[in-house]
Amino acid sequence: MTHIQLSVFLENKKGRLYDVCSFLGEHKVNIRALTVAESDNFGVLRLLVKDPQRVAGLLKGNSFVVNETEVVALEVNDKPGGLAKVLGAINKHHINVEYMYGFVEPKARKAMMVFRFDDPVAAVKALKADRIKVVSSKELGSI
Amino acid sequence: MIWDQKMECASRPEMKKLQSERLKKLVHYLWKGNAVYRRRFEHFNVKPSEIGDISDIRKLPVTVKEDLRDNYPFGLFTDYRHTTEIHVSSGTTGNPTVVGYTREDLKLWAQVMARSLALAGAVPGDMIQVAYGYGLFTGGLGAHYGALEMGLKVIPASSGQTKRQLKLMTDFRPRILACTPSYALFMLDEARALGIDPKASSWEIGIFGAEPWSESMRAQIEASWDMTATDIYGLSEIIGPGVAQECQHKAGLHFQWDVFYPEVLDPKTGENVKDGERGELVITTLTKRGIPLLRYRTRDIVTIEYSKCKCGRTTPRISKILGRTDDMLIIRGINVFPSQIEYVLLKIEGTQPHYLLVVDRQNNLDTLEVWVEVEEKMFSDEIKQMRALEETIKREIESVLGLDVKVKLVEPKSIERSEGKAKRVIDKRKI
């Protein structure tokens, strides 16, 4: 129930995000979710895509530095208190969150949150027991 | 004033005689007391008895910086037992360069530095502000010993703390300033910011060295501070500052050749260049006891002039340093080799040595930026890990160089490679 997130190292200079996105566009890669984390001189682009192995290969072949990480996508009710409920469960189980980011799934009127946990497998187990909806690869692929 | 009339104004035949005697003694001294040189003499098949005249110096092997490193720390010392002071400069790949002084060597250092101060125009009783770093670096203590020898009043300010430097200058009114030329320019901005009129400063004479500088920097320093700016040359392997110094005619740096014998050689063939032509300065320490060096290759490119100077001295004069035969950079007076940075990067796990050094001069101070290409092994999706990597590289480089640097992580293959080999240095300074 985990997903492979691709992270791409980007130098903090004009047009780099565009370069990656247009490269992915040319190769017909649809980006499911995306976030950019930044430091003074560099940024890390994090992506969820269909068939991450293939996309990682494409990017590496074009001299991008790519890292593959296991992340967990959780469904959040798109209404006040929705996120708090999920975070409450995470808190209760003392699960460590490195970072997270959200995206909206318009058809289902659901919000999705992507979480980078220390131990994603244990996190999935604990959250499922707490009736938090963990998004499967199949569901993510169909968005 | 001329500090040592006898040595600084000797005729060429007199000097040749003295140098020949000193070289003979030196070779015997090394033959008897230094295993490394002894082996080398045997390898080159030279016996001390074959050295009778200074021109025989050509038969002797050269010494290079790597010899000091390979024999780290004390292997090249000839008189370790009587060594009383040790100085260290950062090394090329790991081990620093270590030099030692016996009591006699310290006297020699004080002597040549006193000659240098006199060359610059100092007279006993003057006050000198020494703003070279004190410590392992030879600049501060070398100037200090010379000033004591001459009978100057020394302010051992050491480097940095610009506001305090300016306060000492304003309140104590020293006539002489000794520091790097870029620091003299840096203090200028600080002085203006504090509302101090640089032209009204007490400094009349500047003794500037430890880094290359141009005539245009000289003109700027002299006009802004209203002082005479002179150039000093030295390197810790030979003794530190005091090897050569300009007189007030600024017609080359007077070389103390009774104690440091200069040769200017073609770096490729090792043969003497014709008089007045550029070549690598090679120096033999004729009288040093602790760590005497034979034909030490300085890697500095100079020309040399043997005519008598208008000041009356007969010591030969070398030009300003016109270049280097290796890739050494001098940043804020500190010697930096690209290989030192390569060494640090190799030590840090996962780091490939694809890097670029960007040297610049901002507000008259040199800056060093190290660009490192990010490889897959060192890349993490977490910013804090990447920051930690940046910090580790920075800290490691700083501890090897003794110089603060800025580290910038860049994308792979973003550093230009020419014929498959990366370009290592971009020097944007206009010296």
Describe this structure in words.
The complex is a heterodimer of chains A (143) and B (431). Chain A has 2 domains: 3-69, VC0802-like (2-Layer Sandwich); 70-137, 2-Layer Sandwich (Alpha-Beta Plaits). In chain A, 34% of the residues lie in helices and 38% in strands. Chain A has 5 helices and 6 strands; from the N terminus they run E-H-E-E-H-E-H-E-E-H-H. Chain A has a 6-stranded antiparallel sheet with strand order 2-3-1-4-6-5, with helices on both faces. In chain A, strand 2 and strand 3 form a beta hairpin. The radius of gyration of chain A is 16 Å and the shape is globular. The mean pLDDT of chain A is 89. Chain B has 431 residues and is α/β, with parallel strands linked by helices. Chain B has 2 domains: 69-326, ANL, N-terminal domain (Rossmann fold); 331-427, 2-Layer Sandwich (GMP Synthetase, Chain A, domain 3). Chain B contains 11 helices and 23 strands. In chain B, the strands form 6 sheets. Chain B has a 9-stranded mixed sheet, sandwiched between helices. A 4-stranded antiparallel sheet of chain B has the order 10-11-12-15, with no helix packed on it. In chain B, helix 9 links the parallel strand 6 (205-209) and strand 7. In chain B, helix 2 packs across helix 3, helix 5 (103-120) packs across helix 6 and helix 10 (338-347) crosses helix 11.
Topology:
The complex is a heterodimer of chains A (143) and B (431).
Chain A: E1 3-11, H1 16-26, E2 31-38, E3 42-49, H2 52-61, E4 66-77, H3 82-92, E5 97-105, E6 110-117, H4 120-129, H5 137-142
Antiparallel strand pairs in A: 1-3, 1-4, 2-3, 4-6, 5-6
Chain B: H1 5-8, H2 12-33, H3 35-44, H4 65-70, E1 83-89, E2 97-102, H5 103-120, E3 127-130, H6 138-150, E4 153-155, H7 162-172, E5 176-179, H8 181-193, E6 205-209, H9 215-225, E7 228-235, E8 240-246, E9 253-255, E10 260-265, E11 279-285, E12 296-302, E13 304-305, E14 317-318, E15 323-324, E16 329-331, E17 334-336, H10 338-347, E18 355-362, E19 365-373, H11 383-401, E20 406-410, E21 417-418, E22 421-422, E23 425-427
Parallel strand pairs in B: 3-4, 3-5, 5-6, 6-7, 18-23, 19-20
Antiparallel strand pairs in B: 1-2, 7-8, 8-9, 9-14, 10-11, 11-12, 12-15, 13-14, 16-17, 18-19, 21-22
Helix pairs in contact in B: 2-3, 5-6, 8-9, 10-11
